[in-house]
Specification:
mainly alpha; 2 domains
């Protein structure tokens, strides 16, 4: 079973110079580097176009597929993270309410979730 989708990886790659596809595939350190260097000055971003299939296979091996869908959670975090909608989706109502009223805990909670969302979902699906 697949936990991550190559299609989602390529869609996030469009914004990859900001590291979103690397966060999605569970690579927060390089995702952060891509964020601050615009995808290693766009060179790494172009190279990642060819690396996505391997990153996808690694993520499928690493993370457990289950009732909480990684793709839905990542879409919600990417586009509505400041409202905490991804947290409501994962059943984390209390922190979802906090995010809703604090703009994603002043942005720091969103950054935390970019670093840890795969692990959070993995624990829920275990």
């Amino acid at each position: 079973m697949q936990s991550h989708s190559p299609l989602m990886g390529y869609l996030l790659w469009i914004f990859g110079f900001m590291g979103s596809h690397r966060f999605y595939y569970g690579r927060p350190i390089t995702g952060t580097i891509w964020f601050f260097t615009l995808g290693l000055f766009f060179v790494g971003w172009i190279i990642d176009l060819f690396l996505i299939p391997g990153m996808n296979d690694d993520a499928d091996d690493r993370y457990i597929d289950g009732p909480v869908d990684y793709n839905i959670a990542w879409i919600l975090l990417t586009f509505l993270g400041f409202l905490g909608i991804h947290r409501f989706y994962m059943g984390k109502i209390f922190t979802g309410i906090i995010y809703l009223f604090t703009v994603g805990l002043f942005g720091l909670g969103i950054l935390y979730d970019y670093w840890t969302l795969n692990e959070q979902i993995d624990r829920l699906n275990d």
